[in-house]
Amino acid sequence: MAVLYDAHDELARHRLSVGDGHDLHVFETGAADGAPVVVLHGGPGGGVSPGYARYFDPERYRVVLMDQRGAGASTPSGGLEHNTTWDLVGDLEIAREALGIERWHVFGGSWGSTLALAYAATHPDRVLSMCLRGIFLARAREVRWLYQFGASEVYPDAWERFIAPIPEGERGDLVHAYHSRLTGDDDAVATTCAKAWSVWEGSISKLRQDPAALARFEEDAFARVFASIECHYFVNDSFFPHDGWLLDQVDAFRHVPAVIVQGRYDTVCPPRSAWDLHRAWPEASFELVHAGHSMTDPAIAAALVRATDRFAAIAR
Ligand code: STX
Fold this sequence. Notes:
It is built from 12 helices and 8 strands. By secondary structure, the chain is α/β, with parallel strands linked by helices. It has 2 domains: 10-138 and 240-311, Rossmann fold; 142-236, no CATH class. Strands 1-2-4-3-5-6-7-8 form an 8-stranded mixed sheet, with helices on both faces. The longest helix has 17 residues, at 187-203. It starts with 9 loop residues before the first strand and ends in a 5-residue tail after the last helix. Bound molecules: ligand STX.
C-alpha cells in the first residue's frame, strides 16, 4: 500500500448534535489551512476509519471524517429513527457550517458515492470536486444483485452462509426476511443474522480475499450496526423519490470536476452502475481498473490518490 500517504496526525475531534437525538462523531486530520475534503463512508452504516485519511496529502488537505447517523462512534449507535438519505445530506450541511467551511471536496465510495451524488444534486454550489469509487446508485437492480441474485453466482460458497439463517420458504425476498429479524425482538437471532449479512459483504469486496479483513465484519457490535442500517435503507429504497433518481440529477452537478473509479471485478457494486453514470455524465473522468470493490485494492487506491493529488489544486 505504498501508494497511500502515511497516517495523519489528528487536528481536531468533535461531537456534533444534528437534532432528532443524533450526535455525530467527526474528526479532522491533515493541514488546518489545507483544501477541505469530506470523506463519506460506505454501507450505509459502515463508519469511517482513520486509514481513510491516507488517500490525501496531509500537507495539502484538511480532511474531515465523519460517522454518518448511527454508524461508527456516532450515537445512538445503530439508530434507525430519523435516519434517511436526506437526514445524512442535511448533516453534511450542518457539519460544513459548524466547521466554517464554505465549499469542500467530496470523496466517497460505494454508499459513500451514493451519498456524494445525493449531496451534489441538492447542494452543487458547495462541492469543489467529487472523487467517487465503486459506484452504487441504490437502484433496485443493484440491491437485487447483492442480496438476491447475481453476486450469489460468483460467490456460491459465501452465499450459502449468507442464506443459512433464513428458512427456505422466505428466501424469495432476502432483504425483507433479514429486515424482520434484524429489527425483531429476538436479540440472539438479530445478532446471528447481522453477522451473516455483514460477513457476506465483507467476503466479496476484495479482488484477493483477506481473512484478516473479515474479522471486523464478524464483530457483533459492528455487524449489528452495519446490517441493520443497510437493511433499513434498502427496504426503504434508500429514500429516493424513484428508482434511478440519481441518474436524473446529473445536470445539477455536471460542471463539478469529478472522477469515477470503478473496479472491473467489483462484485458488491458491479461496473454497470459506474458505466450508467459515465454515460449520463461523460464530463467526469472515468477509470475502470483491474480491481474489486475495496478502496484498498491496489489499482483503486492508486487511482484515488492520483485523483486527490490532482484536485488539491482546485481553488476554493
Ligand atoms: N453497500 C456497499 C457499501 O457501501 C451496499 C459498503 N460495503 N462495505 C462497506 O461499505 C464498508 C467497507 C464501509 C464496511
